[in-house]
Amino acid sequence: xxxxxxxxxxxxxxxxxxxxxxxxxxxxxxxxxxxxxxxxxxxxxxxxxxxxxxxxxxxxxxxxxxxxxxxxxxxxxxxxxxxxxxxxxxxxxxxxxxxxxxxxxxxxxxxxxxxxxxxxxxxxxxxxxxxxxxxxxxxxxxxxxxxxxxxxxxxxxxxxxxxxxxxxxxxxxxxxxxxxxxxxxxxxxxxxxxxxxxxxxxxxxxxxxxxxxxxxxxxxxxxxxxxxxxxxxxxxxxxxxxxxxxxxxxxxxxxxxxxxxxxxxxxxxxxxxxxxxxxxxxxxxxxxxxxxxxxxxxxxxxxxxxxxxxxxxxxxxxxxx
Amino acid sequence: xxxxxxxxxxxxxxxxxxxxxxxxxxxxxxxxxxxxxxxxxxxxxxxxxxxxxxxxxxxxxxxxxxxxxxxxxxxxxxxxxxxxxxxxxxxxxxxxxxxxxxxxxxxxxxxxxxxxxxxxxxxxxxxxxxxxxxxxxxxxxxxxxxxxxxxxxxxxxxxxxxxxxxxxxxxxxxxxxxxxxxxxxxxxxxxxxxxxxxxxxxxxxxxxxxxxxxxxxxxxxxxxxxxxxxxxxxxxxxxxxxxxxxxxxxxxxxxxxxxxxxxxxxxxxxxxxxxxxxxxxxxxxxxxxxxxxxxxxxxxxxxxxxxxxxxxxx
Lengths: 321, 314
Known about the structure:
The structure holds 2 protein chains of 2 kinds. Chain A has helices at residues 2-19, 39-54, 74-87, 96-108, 147-152, 172-188, 203-212, 224-227, 230-239, 249-255, 264-279, 301-307, 313-316, and strands spanning 28-34, 63-69, 90-94, 115-120, 138-142, 162-168, 191-197, 217-220, 243-246, 258-260, 290-291, 297-299. By secondary structure, chain A is α/β, with parallel strands linked by helices. Chain A has a 6-stranded parallel sheet with strand order 2-1-3-4-5-11, with helices on both faces. Chain A has a 4-stranded parallel sheet with strand order 7-6-8-9, with helices on both faces. A two-stranded antiparallel sheet of chain A has the order 10-12. In chain A, strand 3 (90-94), helix 4 and strand 4 form a beta-alpha-beta unit. The radius of gyration of chain A is 22 Å and the shape is elongated. Chain B is mainly α. Chain B has 2 domains: 3-267, no CATH class; 272-314. Chain B contains 13 helices and 2 strands, in the order H-H-H-H-E-H-H-H-H-H-E-H-H-H-H. A two-stranded antiparallel ribbon of chain B has the order 1-2. The longest helix of chain B is centred in the N-terminal third of the chain and has 32 residues, at 3-34. Chain B is globular and about 60 Å long. The N and C termini of chain B lie far apart (44 Å). In chain B, 49% of the residues are buried. At the A-B interface, helix 1, strand 2, helix 3, helix 4 and helix 6 of A face helix 1, helix 4, helix 6, strand 2 and helix 10 of B.
C-alpha cells in the first residue's frame, strides 16, 4: 500500500513535469501578478498588455506573458512571486500586496529584475518605494483617487448630511482613503458613518447597519473586496435611494451612482508605457513613478431612472460624453 | 520554458514555504490530533505573529528578540483560547473562532492594513545571510535548524510524564481524570504550546516574506490540516515519532504540489482553489480508505491490496 502510493505520487510528479513544455527561446518573459480577480485589477492588466501590443511587443511573437492571480491567498501569492522572480525578465504587480511580494522575491533571488506596479494607492506609505524619483528597480502608477473631490459630490444633492463609507479594514489602500474621506467630511460638514468590514460576508450587514443609521449617501473607495461585491449591493442601494459615489469606474457601472473615478485600464496603459521604455533599454531610474491625473466623471444612468432622482444640473455639464 | 528557472523556483520555494508550514502543521497537530480540537484561531494568529514581529523590527528591536516576543504573545493568546473553554465552558471550536475574530482588530491596528520591513532593517534571515552571503542557503539553513529543534523538542516533551498526560487527556478525558490527571491544566498547556508554535511560524513567515497584510492568514488552518493528512497518507504512521516526521515531509510535498500547479504554463489561476480542493478531497479520501483497509487488515484475512502485494513479491 505504502509503496503503491509512493509510486502513484512519484508518477503524478513525473506526469505533471512532462506536461511542462520544454522549449527555450528568446522571447522576453513578462510576469503579471494580481492579488485577486475583479474588474478593476483586470482592467489594469488588460490595459498593460494592450499598451505593450500597441508599441510592438506582442504576446507569442516577441514576449511571453504569465498571468497569475492569487485569489486572496498570501502564501500562494508569495509562491507565485518567487516563481515570477526566477523566470521573468520583467514583473508587474497589480495591488499593494502583489507589488510587495514581487519586490521581496526579486531581492531574495538576488536579481535586478524591473518591478512595475499599479493599483497601489500609497506606494511610499506601503514601503514599496522611497520617493517617486528614488525608487530602485521599482516603478509604476498609483491609483490614489480624488477623494475630496468625490466627497464634495454629495453636496450637490439636496438633503445629504450623513454618509457612510464601505471598505475593507485590512487594505492599506482603503485605510488611506478612509482618512482622506474623514477629513473631507469634516471640512464639508458631513457626518461620516464608518462601515469598515473584514470579510465579504460582512459587507451586506454593514451596509444595512449604516442604512439603519440613516445615511443618504455612500462612499466606496478603490477597495478590492468591495469592488468584487458591488453587483450584490445594487438592489439595496437603489431601493433605499442611497447616492453611491465610487472611486473606480467598474464599481460605478456595476452598482454605484456616480463618481470621479480612477480608470484602471488607463492606469494599466500608463504602466505599459513604462514597461516599453524599460524593454527598449531605458534606465529604470530615469522614469518617474506617476499618480493618476485624469479622473473622468462616471455616471450610472440606471440609478437615476430606477430611483426617480435627477442628476443635479451642476454635474450634468461635467458628464463625460 | 526555461528549465533551470523552473527547477530553481521549485527548489527554493517548496522547501522554504514547506518548512515554515511544517511548523504550522506541528502546532495544528498538537491541537487537532492530540487535544482533539480544531483551532480556528490559527488563521488570525499566523498573521498576528508576523505583523508583531515585523513592526517590532521596524521599531528597532533585534530580529531574534522580536521573534521571541511574537511567540510569547502567541502563547498568551493560546492561554486565552483555552481559558475560554476551560473556565467559561465555551465550546472549544467556538472559543477558537472568538479568538480568531478578536485578533483581527490588533492585526488591523498594528499593521494599518499592511506592514513592510523597512529599508535598512534586518530580518533574522538577513542577519544569518551575512555569514553565508547566499539568501537561499541562509533561509534553508535557518529553517531546517528551527524545524529540527522544535520537532525534537516536541518529541521529547510528549515523552515526559507531563507530555504523556496531555496526550492521555486528549485521547480520553474521563479516563485521564480517573487516573488523577488535571485535564484542565493539560488542555491549557497543550493550547499554549500549539499557539506558540503557530506564532513562531507566523513570525518566521513575516520575516521571510518581508511583508504581511492583516488578512494574510486566510486558509492557514486548512494548509496545516492538509499537511497533517498528507503526511498520514504517505507514511501511514503508527508511532508518534513517525507522525512528527510525516508533518515535515508533508509540508514539503504540499508545497511541491502547489508549486507544480502554479508552474504549469497556461494554467488559468482562477482554477487554483478548485484544484486545491480536488487535491484535498483526494488526499483525505485516500486517508479514510487506508484507515478502513487497515482495520480489515490481518494475517488470516488478507485484503485485496495485501494479496496483490504478496503476489508482486512472489
